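[Q] Does anyone have a clean structure-token version of this?
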Amino acid sequence: MSDQKTTHFGYQQVPIEEKAARVREVFDSVATRYDLMNDLMSLGIHRLWKRHTIELAGVRRGQRVLDLASGTGDLADRFAAIVGPDGQVVMSDINAAMLGEGRKRMLDRGRVGNVQYSLINAEQIPFPDDYFDCVTIGFGLRNVTDKQKALGEMQRVLRPGGRALVLEFSHPLTKPLGRAYDLYSFSVLPTLGKLVTNDPGSYRYLAESIRMHPDQETLRGMMETAGLERCEYFNHSGGIVAIHRGYKL
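[A] Here you go.
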């Protein structure tokens, strides 16, 4: 009998050491159409979710921000404008293709000077303790193999008084909404994925990974276990998305 440890990749069980590579393949496949798919999948509402995340972050001029799983940089772009030339935004992702797309987008917008780019696994953040004023991860925590370890790393690199924010798909608050969301996720999303990216499998994985992600209360408890305090969450779109916030005090 094998004692090899496994973890979930969507609904599949895969060896722990393989998950990061499989997630990387998914985002390699969709990187160039990532923004278009976000708009199509959410009908543009993802912009409102991200705007609220920015508001909850409470970032100010001159502060340091780490944006994990930054993708094409929607959050990092706004943070760079807020912190100004004396601040620092580290735009990071575990996926080089996604980070490359984000870097091109930031340069096109003229975001230079206060933005740095780094390939980072959220489970092993290469920065010292008490360094950042704010750490965010948008639609990336569900893809992390050891979510508890990643939350602990986010807490570690925050300075006292700093904030950690997790913007992520979550669990609908009512059964009728849950049924409608399941129908949309497992029928519409793969079809969109096939039409736009010629990769329905990646969007099937997206739907499955959302179902395997902890619900709102469980994630709040995980943040508290990581040492974050005053943890709370804000539901959007009937719980389809939630923003969690915690402080290092």
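[Q] Thanks! Anything notable?
[A] The two ends are 46 Å apart (CA to CA).
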